[in-house]
Amino acid sequence: IDGTLMEHLIKALKAAGEPTRLRILAALSQYELTVTELVSLLGQSQPRVSRHLKLLLEARLVSRFQEGSWVFQRLNESNLTAQITAMIDLSDPTLKQDSERLGRIKVENARRATDYFAANAGDWDQVRTMVGSDENIETAMRKTIANRVFDNMIDMGTGTGRIVE
């Protein structure tokens, strides 16, 4: 193994070789999660969870991505990450508890999102303007689409449908 690969392997194994970080890897093998969800799952402070995530990110076992105003963590799609997570025994009592707790967290988040939408559905066009004006969105879409001709168009989550008018 060349030196760089050896260093990466050692860093990854050191990062994974700690109980809380193994719990994080096990959780991320099931879902993409926010720091808030991980804090709730692990019962640890946000700074502590963020520190664990930083080590996993630096070891390239985990990556983060933004979706709207949310930042999610997920497992990296690498052979090394897959090999490490394959060795985690999800039947371990702590990990089984985590999995059950995670299921409840996800159900509660879905309920909150549904409640939010139900409470704001009538005002959805107004709420959407907090993200950007219709004119700015239309300008960006026209610039992206330019003069291309499409045979089909798919409406994917445009809210009330205003943008496809």
Automatic annotation (TrEMBL):
SMART domains documented for this protein: HTH_ARSR (SM00418)
HTH arsR-type domain mapped to chain residues: 1-95
Protein keywords: DNA-binding, Transcription, Transcription regulation
SUPFAM superfamilies in alphabetical order: Winged helix' DNA-binding domain
Gene3D superfamilies attached to this UniProt entry: Winged helix-like DNA-binding domain superfamily/Winged helix DNA-binding domain
Stored InterPro entries: ArsR-like_HTH, HTH_ArsR_DNA-bd_dom, HTH_MetalResp_TranReg, WH-like_DNA-bd_sf, WH_DNA-bd_sf
GO MF entries: DNA binding; DNA-binding transcription factor activity
NCBIfam families with a match to the protein in the record: HTH_metalloreg
Entry protein name: HTH arsR-type domain-containing protein
Species this protein is from: marine sediment metagenome
Organism classification: unclassified sequences, metagenomes, ecological metagenomes
